[in-house]
């Protein structure tokens, strides 16, 4: 299931005929995703080149509700990318997702 969600999100973001930025495409997707698709979307947006603003996603009800679930590390990591620094990641990484090299570079 997770790989199908990943493939769907990648297809929509990479090949969307919608005008606008990659962030706008993630925001459109975030309005409807639920379950595992939410966490996959967060992983994708954190990895996406050219996306450096994350506050709009944090404000989405279905994304912000992750803060009070067992998947809160996804929300915490998205919040880190919105408001934090790599130094914050190093100080609090037990409450955050493990970052890929691309995500670490983006956060720095």
Automatic annotation (TrEMBL):
It comes from the Eukaryota. Pfam families: CSN7_HB_subdom (PF22061). The keyword Magnesium does not apply. Keywords: Signalosome. One of its GO terms (cellular component) is COP9 signalosome. This is COP9 signalosome complex subunit 7a. It comes from Anoplophora glabripennis (Asian longhorn beetle).
